[in-house]
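FAQ

Q: What does a record look like?
A: Structure on top, sequence underneath. For example:
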């Protein structure tokens, strides 16, 4: 099985972990081209494009300059990303074997890097899949779609189970060609729900991110290769929801009345 996660906006290249080795992103040159384009844009245009404040837009442009500098710091993606999901993943306490296993069984979508392996070195950036950047298609989704689908298919072809666990956001997963992926692999989306007075609802975005990170940690740490073994996940107050589970979805429910 291979799990697919979303990236995080927050990136901290100073974090540490027992990393056995590191790799370079497959689409490093494309990522450089994207950041080069950003360096040539006025801050007000960056602000409009990214829907960010002037201060954050200035940071985004500064990150783009640093991105292209060979002297700027980088860090393995699984440690550098430090949003809610990655704080729940807690990769800083992974063993060397855990990192090695993650390198084979985890992929991370990125609006700037396309598709990352956990031990690929990354630098701070600001670029989303929904962003429209001149010269890069209608948006970064359309720009990346074929390349990242091709790359994910290579990993799935090498996977014995030929199963993709979609533990990502809608923005990330819709950037791939699911129809092409489904011709070679079974796609299973992991859903997190809650029980309310008005029935079952999706959990809050923060809870969803927290649960996604914890789920991926459970998957990696336990070296799971059988779908039914995923049902035992019980972190974050979640439990397997039989009625919401089918060939395409594994659902977990959190009581929140």
């Amino acid at each position: 099985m291979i799990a697919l996660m979303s990236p995080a906006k927050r990136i901290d290249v100073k974090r540490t972990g027992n990393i056995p080795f590191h790799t370079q992103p497959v689409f490093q040159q494309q990522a450089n081209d994207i950041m080069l384009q950003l360096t040539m844009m006025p801050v007000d245009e960056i602000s409009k494009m990214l829907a960010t404040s002037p201060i954050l837009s200035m940071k985004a442009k500064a990150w783009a300059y640093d991105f292209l500098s060979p002297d700027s710091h980088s860090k393995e993606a699984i440690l550098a990303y430090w949003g809610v999901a990655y704080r729940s993943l807690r990769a800083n306490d992974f063993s060397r074997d855990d990192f090695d296993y993650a390198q084979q069984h985890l992929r991370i979508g990125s609006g700037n890097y396309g598709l990352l392996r956990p031990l690929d070195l990354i630098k701070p950036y600001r670029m989303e899949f929904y962003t429209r950047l001149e010269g890069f298609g209608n948006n970064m989704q359309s720009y990346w779609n074929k390349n990242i689908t091709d790359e994910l298919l290579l990993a799935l072809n090498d996977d014995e189970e030929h199963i993709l666990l979609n533990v990502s956001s809608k923005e990330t997963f819709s950037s791939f060609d699911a129809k092409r992926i489904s011709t070679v692999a079974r796609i299973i989306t992991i859903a997190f729900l809650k029980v309310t007075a008005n029935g079952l609802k999706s959990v809050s975005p923060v809870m969803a991110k927290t649960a996604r990170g914890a789920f991926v940690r459970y998957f990696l740490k336990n070296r799971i290769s059988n779908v039914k073994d995923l049902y035992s996940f019980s972190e974050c107050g979640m439990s397997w929801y039989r009625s919401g589970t089918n060939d395409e979805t594994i659902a977990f429910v959190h009581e929140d009345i």
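Q: Is there anything notable about this one?
A: The first helix runs from residue 28 to 39.
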